[in-house]
């Protein structure tokens, strides 16, 4: 346990340093860059000092999106590695993107919440190959979908007081539609290479249409 704490302190300092230097986004790679770009072009600019907050969080929560303030919370006490932070930032940015483009009713429409959690689990790398191997869950073809479904359920149950059956029902209702909605990536980015391709396509989107 002590070891984890040490590591956590180092990483926390690193996050805070990056944050204070205004480099939170640039340090986190193509997924986040693409999401930030997509939000900007949808009219939702993200400001590093206003929209990212480093806090200590309860339990094992690693991050959150606060819809009322449009703020992404990074749980500095529960994030121990740069790669984990990248996933958390990407996951929460997907919620922020959905909030921006779709006027999500987080509190009254259960389907909206379920859909965004499915998308965040699917597109953030939460269920990517390396991640799953490291959890000793390496498995079959359908495994990615199972992982996404499981993580979406877990996220919903962490923020809403509903029964597991109720959460499962809603997740299953919207699963196919939301699992296949890859905006703004255009694909499921399984690794950094995919994310770089997606970012390149996104950067070239205007040029492409201008040439038609
Ligand atoms: Zn989430």
TrEMBL record:
GO molecular function, one term: metal ion binding
Leader sequence segment: none
Documented EC number(s): 3.4.24.-
Keywords, in A-Z order: Hydrolase, Metal-binding, Metalloprotease, Protease
Protein name, entry field: Mitochondrial inner membrane protease ATP23
Gene3D superfamilies: Winged helix-like DNA-binding domain superfamily/Winged helix DNA-binding domain
Any one GO BP annotation for this protein: mitochondrial proton-transporting ATP synthase complex assembly
Pfam family, one: Peptidase_M76
Organism: Oncorhynchus tshawytscha
Gene encoding the protein: ATP23
Class of enzymatic activity (EC top level): hydrolase
Domain of life of the source: Eukaryota
Single GO cellular component term: mitochondrion
């Amino acid at each position: 346990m002590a070891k984890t704490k040490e590591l956590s302190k180092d990483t926390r300092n690193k996050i805070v340093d990056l944050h204070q230097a205004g480099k939170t986004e640039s340090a986190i790679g193509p997924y986040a860059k693409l999401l930030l770009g997509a939000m900007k072009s949808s009219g939702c600019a993200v400001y590093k000092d206003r929209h990212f907050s480093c806090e200590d969080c309860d339990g094992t929560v690693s991050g959150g999106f606060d819809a009322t303030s449009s703020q992404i919370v990074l749980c500095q006490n529960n994030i121990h590695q740069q790669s984990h932070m990248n996933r958390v930032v990407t996951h929460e940015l997907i919620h922020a993107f959905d909030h921006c483009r779709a006027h999500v009713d987080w509190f009254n429409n259960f389907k909206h919440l379920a859909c965004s959690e499915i998308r965040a689990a699917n597109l953030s790398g939460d269920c990517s190959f390396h991640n799953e191997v490291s959890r000793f869950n390496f498995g079959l073809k359908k495994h990615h979908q199972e992982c996404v479904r499981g993580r979406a359920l877990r996220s919903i149950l962490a923020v809403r007081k509903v029964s597991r059956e109720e959460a499962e029902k809603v997740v299953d209702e919207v699963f196919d539609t939301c699992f296949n909605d890859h905006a703004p990536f255009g694909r499921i980015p399984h690794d950094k290479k995919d994310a770089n391709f997606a970012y390149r396509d996104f950067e070239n989107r205007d040029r492409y249409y201008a040439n038609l």
